[in-house]
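User: For a benchmark we're assembling, each entry needs the component sequences followed by a predicted structure for the full assembly. Here are entry 17's components. Please fill in the structure.
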Amino acid sequence: MVISEKTACLIIIGDEILSGRVQDLNLNYLAKWLNQQGVDLKASHVIQDVEDVIISTLNSARKTYSYVFTTGGIGPTHDDITSKAVARAFGVKMELREEAVDLLKAQYPNHKISKPGIKMATFPVGAEMIANSVSAAPGFKMENVYVMAGIPKIMQAMLGVLEGQIEGSGIVLSKAVTAYISEGKMALPLENIQKEYPNTTIGSYPFFNNQDDFGTTLVVRSRDEISVTSAIQDIKSWLDKNEARYKEGERK
Amino acid sequence: MVISEKTACLIIIGDEILSGRVQDLNLNYLAKWLNQQGVDLKASHVIQDVEDVIISTLNSARKTYSYVFTTGGIGPTHDDITSKAVARAFGVKMELREEAVDLLKAQYPNHKISKPGIKMATFPVGAEMIANSVSAAPGFKMENVYVMAGIPKIMQAMLGVLEGQIEGSGIVLSKAVTAYISEGKMALPLENIQKEYPNTTIGSYPFFNNQDDFGTTLVVRSRDEISVTSAIQDIKSWLDKNEARYKEGERK
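Assistant: Structure for entry 17:
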């Protein structure tokens, strides 16, 4: 059974990630969130705050994937160039949106909305705003592109707004076994089990703390529950037969 | 003064990052390490364990950047396909390397080197091995491409081996001021300071914990120390003049 897959790509726009100043947390959060929506995150690109790079990366991604998410670069300062780059990528102009000005005025009643504030209320023509319950300045959606803030707390609030609005193609189920043997020992039987269940993806993820604490987490993923259960059962049978120590689930 | 910039790209090969199972830590570590080598990390791509995707991403990156680093997919199991993909990207065959077999034998004296072990001792023709002090199985270098393990501890050990082997183009200096004012207030003067010091990159990174704890970290980066110091001084002068609270350096 082939289900038309819904796919996604995340474009992380941020010199601060590439300079090492900030550890990105948005990819991992979005990946888990997309799992729950039944959408497969297929790729992520971390790029500089450079307009031409944003435009070419975005234009390639929005043709390739069902959904594209971006994080970063929608604030008020000179290095926040995402919104303008998105407008150029779509070939549209920017326009001031009064409803966004009102949101900012409501959030900051004692401030005059200055030029930088105006910038955060200016969007590509045709943009649908994505509410920001943390600091008011909205993200936005253009066709299949979702433009979000880079601050994790705000990005997460924006994803909350999108809950239920993204069409998925069925939840991917995942089961894991953690085996306390070296990855190599398991390699051949695992390859055979993978061949037997071609509609699953079996991942083998070694961990190594020291000579006494190492092993491999085996993860089976599929939209078909029966295949996941059967493949996990085959893995456990092999481990039992070879007297390998293991436990159900991920290593904690 | 234009210095020919040494640039880098990181390709993170790993379904486990894209599924959200694992939080990537290698990008941040590599970014900081490259800073110390005087190399600018320009982009990073997180891609699936799919051979054609690895090949096209790698072949594009190795023509574009001075150095390309990859993490993940060099273990013994069926989902470890990086080495073979790199060989195909370079148009070379794979070959067994006896010195790698010896390394594995020395690390695991009680094991017969089986087919999966052989796989970890098999490299693209022409590869230079990168020692792995943690679990023996080496990474490797092909021209300007450095192929490393995905497990952070092993990846870090491999980078340690590369210390001093990567030619840089001068260390990028970085100074920061943390201002406890909203990003918008600082936007215009910051834009002017950026214009005055075109050989610096001034980043403005807002943080927002709650209505009483928010602000903006301002980071000036350049290979020219005098410009960094002057730009930071101008930022502080503006903050003083506007009676804004701030402190030197990053927010802790």
